[in-house]
Amino acid sequence: MNEKQRIQPLSRDAMAYVLAGGRGSRLKELTDRRAKPAVYFGGKTRIIDFALSNALNSGIRRIGVATQYKAHSLIRHMQRGWNFFRPERNESFDILPASQRVSETQWYEGTADAVYQNIDIIEGYAPEYMVILAGDHVYKMDYELMLQQHVNSGADVTVGCLEVPRMEATGFGVMHVNEKDEIIAFVEKPADPPGIPGKPDFALASMGIYVFHTKFLIEALKRDAASDGSSRDFGKDIIPYIVEHGKAIAHRFADSCVRSDFEREPYWRDAGTIDAYWQANIDLTEIVPGLDLYDKSWPIWTYAEITAPAKFVHDDEDRRGSATSSVISGDCIISGSSLNRSLLFTGVRANSYSKLDGAVVLPNVRIGRRAQLRDVVIDHGVTIPEGLVVGEDPELDAKRFRRTETGICLITQSMIDKLDL
């Protein structure tokens, strides 16, 4: 380790590159108008804020974000909430849409190509290390610790990994490692995942987080781009090639997960289905949730809207503005409505005699009088008609809305507009 690395954290010589172009099709209509990283989460943030906040809190001051699918709301959010980086402090924040810079007919063909097409921008900043991140997961992690492991191990690539029960790893890319956490094989969605040495009932699943020396990464990307038949993807092409021809090391999330005194277990969520999205948000209403968003030592940065405080009005026996075990954001008015185990984003209006139980309500929703809503996700800007009942008749709910097998209903304005009320 040279003198420069000893004086300052490795993160100061690193660039975080966030891959935020994916749709997230399993979220169905929630991603009809926005990319998955732009989906709202936790009351006031978007999913991408977690990867960006982790980078910032880890000490990384150069960040690039590659966007592609329906990127407008994502780009607008980053322009509003992440515009505080200053070049005179050697900071940078670049939004990198697929802009046909390499070819007039070529968009980003894969995750690796999304970095390859911007090599000249990366080289212009000359970072010593690259931290490649997925922009669609919810977690808190100190990338500095992963950088240190990468440098100390002499790895060509270090791969962030989750320990998961072995037979739950069938939907992941799985790292087969030896006793030194050296990756000896990479297996994509295996039917029989390899266990961890010493923990045979667990497997190491890829988090889509990779650390490289920049020079090595650029060489790998150029080699892959010149290879016929490559899908231009980190998980399918770049990482397996390095596992076979170089040195790949697994980094365990538990070693760098950031936890407050209230967080008992390492927390990581994909939130990539309607059920998982609903559950991850509803979990935040618990007395001690698995994810502590109140931890000031590791804040989740976002676009902080200027809003009035939340307000509860009316105090009649059957018309009382109240909420129990719920998270209520700014500019919400709970007007004679009762809420239980619900999470409301900014600007929601819940009108008299309505009842919400297990509701995840995105910004600027209007809940009509006497509406009865249970186990729902309501998209941004929806107006719920007076007297609408959801969560009592499964067959009727499935005809009207997007209902999952577990009974969670996704409600959008287009679905409401089709109702015959």
Automatic annotation (TrEMBL):
The record marks 68, 107 as: Could play a key role in the communication between the regulatory and the substrate sites. The keyword Ligase does not apply. Residues 17-285 form the Nucleotidyl transferase domain. Keywords: ATP-binding, Carbohydrate metabolism, Glycogen biosynthesis, Glycogen metabolism, Nucleotide-binding, Nucleotidyltransferase, Transferase. SUPFAM superfamilies: Nucleotide-diphospho-sugar transferases (SSF53448), Trimeric LpxA-like enzymes (SSF51161). The keyword Ion transport does not apply. Residues 308-411 form the Glucose-1-phosphate adenylyltransferase/Bifunctional protein GlmU-like C-terminal hexapeptide domain. It holds the Pfam family Hexapep_GlmU. Alpha-D-glucose 1-phosphate binds at residues 108, 173, 188-189, 206. Its EC number is 2.7.7.27. Pathway: Glycan biosynthesis; glycogen biosynthesis. GO terms for biological process: glycogen biosynthetic process. GO terms for molecular function: ATP binding; glucose-1-phosphate adenylyltransferase activity. It catalyses: alpha-D-glucose 1-phosphate + ATP + H(+) = ADP-alpha-D-glucose + diphosphate. It is an enzyme of class 2 (transferase). It comes from the Bacteria. Involved in the biosynthesis of ADP-glucose, a building block required for the elongation reactions to produce glycogen. Catalyzes the reaction between ATP and alpha-D-glucose 1-phosphate (G1P) to produce pyrophosphate and ADP-Glc. Homotetramer. NCBIfam families: glgC, PRK00725.1, PRK00844.1. Belongs to the bacterial/plant glucose-1-phosphate adenylyltransferase family. This is Glucose-1-phosphate adenylyltransferase. It comes from Neorhizobium alkalisoli. The lineage of its organism: Bacteria, Pseudomonadati, Pseudomonadota, Alphaproteobacteria, Hyphomicrobiales. The gene is glgC.
